[in-house]
Amino acid sequence: MSASKDRSTHPSRRPTPPPSLPTHVFTAEFLAWLAERDEPETAGQADTAGPWHVEPADPQARGGWAVLREGESLEKGCAPMAVFERKEAAQLAAAILPGTGRRLRYRLSPDAGERGYPLLLDGRPVGHCLFFHKDFVAALNVVDSLMTAPRDFAFLLDAMGGLALEHVDRIAVARLAAAEG
């Protein structure tokens, strides 16, 4: 008996395709069993990791653009993570959501020194802030997460629009030219 193209040992039997795609990969019983267990430390990151997409919201909704996980849709009855009146706000949310669950790399030390509060990157001092500015560090962590996630950064670029991107292009070229000196 020789193996067929699909590597089975049945010479002429091919697997029968399923009649339709399943709506879930895991059984309800398995999911219920998982729900009874403690979540791992990585659950927060997994919950926000995405990938996310933006789709038009229902006209009766309070906003016009929904942010949902890949594989979810309003048509399937899924609840969006957020709904916005403006598309660019939804794109910004889709861009930053993965970073909100990620381990924060930047932190401020609570103990001020001569130069202010030490700014720590992965526990190592990399700078100082005059004030204990939590929002500054939160924004730094958002941008840090976007630098490592091209797909999410692309949402930010799309939300900026053409005019802003033209300005970014000119500024970037000028900075490159200045660096080349």
Written description of the protein model:
The chain is α+β, with helices and mostly antiparallel strands. It is 40% helix and 15% strand. It has helices spanning 28-35, 43-48, 87-100, 134-147, 150-180; strands spanning 52-56, 65-69, 82-84, 106-108, 117-121, 124-129. Strand 1 (52-56) and strand 2 (65-69) form a beta hairpin. The longest helix is centred in the C-terminal third of the chain and has 31 residues, at 150-180. The chain is extended and about 70 Å long. The mean pLDDT is 84.
Architecture blueprint of SSEs:
Layout: H1 28-35, H2 43-48, E1 52-56, E2 65-69, E3 82-84, H3 87-100, E4 106-108, E5 117-121, E6 124-129, H4 134-147, H5 150-180
Antiparallel strand pairs: 1-2, 2-3, 4-5, 5-6
Helix pairs in contact: 3-4, 3-5
List how many beta strands DSSP finds: 6
> Uncertain spans, ≥5 residues at pLDDT below 50?
none
Q: Which range best describes the helical content: under 10%, 10-25%, 25-40%, 40-55%, 55-70% or over 70%?
A: 40-55%
Structural class: alpha+beta
The coarse overall form would be extended
Discrete helix count: 5
Strand order in the largest sheet: 1-2-3
State the distance separating the first and last CA atoms.
72 Å
Mean pLDDT: 84
**What is the element string, with H for helices and E for strands?**
HHEEEHEEEHH
